[in-house]
Amino acid sequence: MSVQLDITGLDSWGFNNDGPLIIAGPCSAESREQLLETAKGIADKGVHVLRAGIWKPRTRPNCFEGMGEEGLKWLVEAKEVTGLPISCETANPEHVELCLKYGVDMIWVGARTTVNPFAVQALADALQGTDIPVLVKNPINPDVELWIGALERMNKAGVKKLGAIHRGFSSARPSEYRNAPNWKIFIELRRRCEGLPIICDPSHLCGKRELIPAVAQKALDLMFDGLMIESHINPDVALSDSKQQFTPEDLGKVLSKLEPKHSAVEDQEFVHMVESKRARLDEIDDILVEMLAERMAIGRQIGKMKCERGIGLLQPAQWKKTVEKRTREGVARGMDEHFMLRIFQYIHEESLRQQECVLAGEK
Ligand code: PEP
Ligand code: MN
After folding, report:
1. pTM above 0.90, yes or no
2. Quick check: CB of 27 below 6 Å from ligand 1?
3. Domain residues for 287?
4. Which one of 158, 165, 280, 290 is CB 3.0 to 4.6 Å from 137, fit for a cystine?
5. For the segment 343-355, what is each residue's pLDDT rounded down to a tens digit?
6. Which pLDDT score is estimated for 361?
7. CA of 204 to the centre of ligand 1 (A)
8. Distance between CA 17 and CA 21 in Å, rounded?
9. 121 alpha carbon to ligand 1 midpoint, in Å?
10. In this structure, is residue 310 part of a structural domain?
11. What is the pLDDT of residues 35-58, one digit of tens each?
12. Cβ–Cβ < 8 Å for 17, 226
């Protein structure tokens, strides 16, 4: 089901972007000099909004936890010097109040805050009656409902300049990324919240500089509405996230190589070509559902037969043969082994569930 949000488009937020919105700046405002030098360095690199963490949510205490109000003053000065609108993370009503007092142009809700509906509601209450744009980062855990819930809380409080930031998700699986991309959650958010601007934050997603350019390009290919990328005048000595920040010069190089994509609607011939392929995909999806239903029906019949003869539902040898054969066939046709395995695990799981239901009904 889609979610009705009463929002205004990115073009009404007052930032000077003609294509994807580029937000960049240091992970943290550390000193007046560091922030001003970084801001000056990135101002002519195609950046539209300056970011800097003022209050930093850190995993362990005794790490650098941000400069607080002092940092906001530097942010305001950086705006005066460069003309760039300014943004930072807020995690509680006091942060919101200070941002409004200093004329911060946009705020975002961090991943560690989005997970907590109480904290999100407190922020939403503090934002009642204001017009400041708000970006909500995805919660740390891959839960699209929690993400949507936070957006709804903001919107209910009257925040219309509302958007989301995809920064990847915590995962127990080993990965080269600091936070797993899990693009399907972004795609689901796109589907559910039509018109919602969604920005990608490849810095926190990747955690390593080298991985950022490819992920940033992928985000543009997936039609994200913008990027948030961390930049520091001297990343090696950064007090937070030093491995994922670019010097302003390197940020300029990365941004200049990115190719924004446009939606297909302008080119009619292309649209027709895609449409006809989509129509075929639709037919195939119909067949898939029909075939799955037929497979389940046969599974239920077999289940009944097994029951009558007192044979166990799960026949491990049969299952092993099926899954291995199909996986091999799929791989031979260019599909990923894990994908094939997962698909057949899902089908088998549902088949067993249906067989159990039939048997429960029989008793
Ligand atoms: C940040 O943007 O500096 C930050 C702390 O990000 P996240 O909330 O995505 O971890
Ligand atoms: Mn950071």
Report:
1. no
2. yes
3. 268-362
4. 165
5. 999 999 999 898 8
6. 75
7. 7
8. 6
9. 19
10. yes
11. 999 999 999 999 999 999 999 988
12. yes
